[in-house]
Amino acid sequence: MPVTGSTARPERLHTGRRLTILVLLVGLLSVLPAGLASGPAGGSAVDLAGDQRPGVIHLTFDDGPHWMFTPMLLGILDGYGARASFFPTVESIVSRWDGDTTQDLLNRGHTIGNHTWRHADLSQLTPWDAVAELDRASHGLADLVGHRPSCFRAPYGAAGDVVEAVGARLGMSLVGWTADPQEWRDPPIGEVISYLRHKRTDGMVVLLHDRKWLTLQITRTLLDEFTREGWRFEALPACRPTGSQEGRVATRTPGDLPVGQVQRVWRIGDEVVLDGWAFDADMPDGGLTIVLNADGRAPVRAGTTDADHRFVAVVEAPMVDQPVCVWVSNAGRRRHDPSLGCHTVIAP
Question: Which residue spans within the chain are E strands per DSSP?
Fold first, then answer.
């Protein structure tokens, strides 16, 4: 039985989605080798879908969100200017988080991927059921954030040619990992860090779970030690779908919290420059104020969005030795100003 998820019977699919799945399945069966199309998927081979840029590590978190630990984890990541990729069980996230909470994760620069609806072992499903399981999960995430995910991770790493082909037909890359410290066994933190040092390489993809207290302590220790040694932590490129900005903007109505994303951070002399986008349905023509905090000093108003909702924000920060944190002012009803995350400064 899966570690997480529900054993409840799935909801009945609407006719339109049944037709979509049927079309996908017919297309899938037409391209699979005969031997693969005739039976369930199997095996555990996975594509990493990471990147091997020097000094980059990818943290990934499965099986969330947890009502307390996931928000705490986001704060830890911000403290080190780290980005990560999250693979929640979609049945859990749609029942525990609303659209604003899920958008907050994306606002901070993290990514979200499909981890099936109910943590199903895809290798034990027929192609028809695998398509239905993944499509239902993608549909659930799209309802929250405005776009379907571009990556997925098979629960238990149980994937093979059929599972990979199913995901590809649904527009998703299959994501695996290169380091699994198995923190669900409650190993000593020192043992985990030693293991990750042994496995460490450019583009390492680390598998963790944001439903455990121990994961918070491992993540804090890992970030503290590895960032001091010059490593950067970034989200998986395969999990940033094309067109996500338009989809996210389409979810906003007057009174909703703004959404956005910082896309680049760099230094020019004594100044830190950031660019990105932000949208508030209460100011559809732009003009949102971007607020920055650098060097632990008081926040400053550093830019505004233009008519295309883009911004370039500049702050003087001659001695940046910690992440630069960003907010966008909420123009709507009296609610908080959303964070666009804290970001490390990249040298020119």
Answer: 56-62, 84-87, 111-112, 151-152, 173-174, 204-209, 232-233, 259-268, 271-279, 289-293, 300-304, 310-316, 324-328, 339-343
Give me 329's structure tokens. Answer: 């002012």
Place of tokens 């969005």: 305
259-268 and 271-279: which strand pairing? antiparallel
CB 177 within 8 A of CB 55: no
Tokens 């007057």 belong to 254
Over the stretch 285-312, which tens digit does the pLDDT of each residue have? Answer: 999 999 998 877 788 999 999 999 999 9
> Are 288 and 327 in contact, with CB atoms under 8 Å apart?
no
pLDDT digits over 122-163, tens only?
999 999 999 999 999 999 999 999 999 999 999 999 999 999
Q: How many CB atoms lie within 10 A of CB 200?
A: 15
The residue type found at 82 is A
Residues 46/173, Cβ–Cβ less than 8 Å: no
Give me the domains of the chain, ranges plus CATH numbers. Answer: 29-238 (3.20.20.370), 256-343 (2.60.40.10)
Q: Amino acid identity, residue 63?
A: D
Question: Could you tell me the pTM of the whole model?
Answer: 0.86
Q: Of how many residues is the chain composed?
A: 348
CB 68 within 8 A of CB 152: no
Return d(Cα 299, Cα 291) in angstroms, integer.
6
